[in-house]
Specification:
There is one protein chain. Helix content is 35%, strand content 19%. It has 426 residues and is of the alpha/beta class. It has 3 domains: 87 residues, NAD(P)-binding Rossmann-like Domain (Rossmann fold), CATH 3.40.50.720; 173 residues, UDP-N-acetylmuramoyl-L-alanine:D-glutamate ligase (3-Layer(aba) Sandwich); 135 residues, Alpha-Beta Complex (Protein-Tyrosine Phosphatase, Chain A), CATH 3.90.190.20. The protein starts with 10 loop residues before the first strand and ends in an 8-residue tail after the last helix.
């Protein structure tokens, strides 16, 4: 670990009590900081995360009091907290530096970082990069927005050859000196407009991945994405463009580009790709029941992810979608539904907006819960069909996160397999 003594005796507050906030708080406490955690929510989820904090860490929920925000040496911002949120504005007005959790990880990491961002495919590419590095005989720690926070992996990173790090636009908003040796910008699509003011602000956040790179660093980017290509022209690092080529999809081509920089052979990559069976909550086949395949694509929080899932299914589909709207245009999925989707079942806060956009392409049904959406899908689907959860939305209106949503879907499907006759309860 680099610079562990830097934080000893520092007074640090973590704003946001969730997975990355807990990991960062516990690490800084271990390094000798006087740590406090504050979250304006007071929910069962925050209570659960509060219970994960090390003894000696002060925490408050349901408020952001001055006692937790002022007179501190540093504020660490969790990704779910907008950088312009009032408590952070108060801290900055008092001259207190505010940084994100990945900035703390960067300050401490003893291994070079390969950072991956983009609107779609981040988790798959981050995972594959880690696997390719390990297949080449070196060590890699895969972490970040993928589910295990950067700061939660410091003890494993100490002797690792590389960190393969997934980073979101929310995390990039709060970097200061973060400088990956290889930055990967996969693509750019309309997304997160519930958080960013417009597409320009969203792209500016993504571009921060190469903000601090120099001439000896590399930027791997999608050469077929016009906005990504334009962004690359503003980089000081060495740009390596990738595009799809025969036998590989776009995600694999991005991994091949990173591998070429690291001197890893295409043959090694092919072996990893062939053995890769996919990730949980990403087009995950949960079960086949009465000839119907149930697919958990809870990680599909964009229209483009849903398009990808529909394009790659070769059977009729009952589509379950909806959740917290992120300001996207759902009509863009309509051409992929036509002739393939038998019914669209909508849930959550965005249900009405999705129904208005897609009412002309398939019959629509509104369910009050995901469990009832699964029951409705079971009653509608026929042998040979697929029931696809591909939400196109964030999960926070009904669930803790996309993983929670995926687990609820999976359990609802498994309950069908052991429960009463198909369609009961609808």
């Amino acid at each position: 670990m680099r610079n562990p003594g830097y934080f000893k005796g520092k007074k640090i507050t973590i704003v946001g009590l969730a997975r990355s906030g807990v990991a960062c708080a516990n690490l800084l406490h271990q390094l000798g900081s006087e740590v406090r955690v504050t979250d304006n929510r007071d929910t069962p989820a925050t209570a659960r995360f509060r219970g994960m904090l090390s003894a000696g860490i002060m925490a408050e929920t349901g408020a952001h009091s001055d006692a937790f925000l002022l007179g501190r040496d540093m504020i660490v911002v969790s990704p779910g907290v907008p950088f312009n949120a009032p408590p952070l504005a108060r801290a900055r007005a008092a001259g207190i530096p505010c940084v994100g959790e990945i900035e703390i990880g960067w300050m401490l990491s003893a291994a070079p970082v390969i950072a991956v961002t983009g609107s779609n495919g981040k988790t798959t590419v981050t995972t594959l990069i880690g696997k390719v590095i390990e297949a080449s005989g070196r060590r890699a720690v895969t972490c970040g927005n993928i589910g295990n926070p950067f700061t939660g992996e410091m003890e494993r990173i100490d002797t690792a050859d590389f960190v393969s790090l997934e980073v979101s636009s929310f995390q990039l908003e709060t970097i200061r000196d973060f400088r990956p040796s290889i930055a990967v910008l996969l693509n750019f699509n309309r997304n997160h407009l519930d958080r960013h003011a417009d597409m320009e602000e969203y792209l500016a956040a993504k571009e921060r991945i190469f903000l601090n790179q120099g001439a000896q660093d590399h930027l791997v980017l999608n050469g077929l994405d016009p906005l990504v290509k334009q962004a690359g022209a503003r980089a000081r690092s060495r740009v390596v463009a990738f595009s799809e080529k025969p036998g590989y999809n776009a995600n694999e081509c991005a991994v091949l580009a990173v591998a070429s920089i690291l001197g890893i052979s295409e043959e090694t990559c092919r072996g990893v790709f062939a053995a890769f069976t996919g990730l949980e909550h990403r087009r995950e086949a949960v079960a086949d029941i009465a000839g119907v395949r149930y697919i958990n694509d809870s990680k599909a929080t964009t229209v483009e992810s849903c398009q990808w899932a529909l394009r790659n299914l070769d059977r009729p589909v009952v589509l379950i979608c909806g959740g917290k709207d992120k300001g996207v245009d759902y009509s863009l999925v309509a051409p992929y539904c036509a002739g393939k989707v038998k019914e669209i079942i909508v849930i959550g806060q965005a249900a009405g907006k999705i129904a208005a956009a897609l009412s002309s392409v398939a019959p629509l049904y509104t369910a009050d819960t995901l469990e009832n959406a699964v029951k409705r899908a079971s009653a509608t689907a026929s042998p040979g069909d697929a029931v696809l959860l591909s939400p196109m939305c964030a999960s926070f209106d009904m669930f803790t996160d996309y993983e929670h949503r995926g687990r609820v879907f999976r359990q609802a499907v498994l309950d069908l397999a052991k429960g009463p006759a198909r369609g009961a309860g609808v």
